[in-house]
Structure formats: structure tokens, C-alpha cells
Design brief:
mainly alpha
Length: 174
């Protein structure tokens, strides 16, 4: 979702802004996997809570079990954003592209940001996935209007093309 408000949480008198950056998504997916991370958060895991806060605050505040339980709903919402969940209804029909894992999707977005868009690695990693997708779509549209044509192979991957089991993340919390 473009221009979505960041989630903010308060812990120990500090306010931590949770921005769903590509860097946070890549690290948390690599270190935990989204289904496991969501399960840990729902159980009040201090480790999972600390890992998420560490992505957004330096130094990050100490986390107690009570804080982990209190912050769990906001952190779960944040992880769902990182995983590509959207408030918008999914498009009907079959996804246009082939399914890919979250890790492959994030690697592809990094390649698009640093390659096709010409952004620095830092700028790409500091940007949410939805904004990279939109920027790339805009670049393709611009180049198509100048040079004509568009290859379906050049399209940016979308959240609908991620791991077909991604919907299981949402069902896991039900």
C-alpha cells in the first residue's frame, strides 16, 4: 500500500517508528521466516519482539514479556505489511507471473531498485516494497512511452506473485 502510515509503538518512554523497509523485510524473513515470526509474536516472544525493534531503533529499548505481549498486535500488523499483506482486495483470477518465495521477491526488488531504477543500495533498502514496485512500474511506463512496447518479462513482481503459501500467514493468525 503506497503512502501507508507507519506503525508507531511506545516502549520504555521511547517511540519507535516501524517503517516496512526492504531491509527489514529481507533480514526478518532470512532470520525467522514470516510464518515463524508471526507465531512467535502471537506467543509473546521477547526474542521476536526485540528483533523487530532492532530493525527500527538503535539502540532499541529493553523488552519485557509484558511489553512483548502488549506490542504483539502492532508488530504482527507490521510483519504482515513486510510480507506484502494489503488492505486492498486481491485481484480476481490467477496471478500474472510465476510464484516466488519472499526471499526471491526481495532479491528481485533489490535488483530493480539498484539496477533499473538506478538507486543506491541504501536508498533501495530503505524503501518499502510497494514503493519500489510503483517506481519501477512508472519507469517502465515512461520508457514504453518513449521507445514503445513492453515485455511481460520486464514487469516488476507483485505481492500476488509471491510464495503461493503466503496466504497461510494470514490463516495462521485466524
Amino acid at each position: 500500500m503506497l503512502a501507508a502510515r507507519d506503525i508507531t509503538v511506545e516502549i520504555g518512554g521511547d517511540v519507535v517508528r516501524l517503517r516496512p523497509t526492504l531491509r527489514a523485510a529481507m533480514r526478518l524473513e532470512r532470520d525467522f521466516g514470516f510464518p515463524k515470526l508471526l507465531k512467535l509474536l502471537s506467543e509473546g516472544s521477547v526474542t521476536a519482539t526485540s528483533a523487530i525493534l532492532a530493525e527500527h531503533a538503535n539502540p532499541f529499548p529493553a523488552v519485557s514479556i509484558a511489553n512483548a505481549i502488549r506490542l504483539a498486535p502492532d508488530l504482527i500488523a507490521h510483519v504482515l505489511r513486510l510480507a506484502g499483506a494489503s488492505d486492498e482486495p486481491a485481484p480476481k483470477g490467477k496471478p500474472a507471473g510465476k510464484a516466488m518465495s519472499h526471499a526471491a521477491y526481495f532479491d528481485r526488488l533489490f535488483a530493480l531498485g539498484t539496477g533499473a531504477l538506478g538507486w543506491t543500495a541504501q536508498a533501495t533498502l530503505d524503501t518499502p516494497a510497494a514503493e519500489i514496485e510503483a517506481a519501477y512500474a512508472g519507469r517502465v511506463e515512461l520508457l514504453s512511452s518513449i521507445f514503445g512496447g513492453k515485455s511481460e518479462d520486464d514487469a516488476a513482481p507483485t505481492s500476488a506473485e509471491r510464495d503461493p503459501n503466503a496466504a497461510s500467514i494470514l490463516r495462521m493468525l485466524a
